Task: inverse folding
């Protein structure tokens, strides 16, 4: 299984299988990079938020799950 391992600012690593992602939503305000934060959900549970200061374009290309990427900030 292809997965992503995220190390948050606080706490331990979070592992998310790309195939397990049910939805991704843009949240918060745009950062200096032009991106907002990206919340990743498995089922109805938010498992991790990727901070918008990261190069989220590269992250999204690797996740390759644009079919579950929300187009608005509301779920």
Result:
């Amino acid at each position: 299984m292809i997965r992503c391992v995220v190390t948050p600012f606080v706490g331990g690593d979070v592992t998310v299988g790309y195939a397990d992602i049910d939805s991704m939503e843009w949240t918060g305000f745009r950062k200096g990079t032009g991106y907002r934060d990206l919340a990743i959900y498995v089922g109805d549970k938010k498992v991790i938020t990727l901070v918008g200061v990261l190069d989220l374009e590269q992250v999204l290309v690797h996740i390759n799950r644009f079919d579950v990427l929300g187009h608005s900030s509301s779920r």
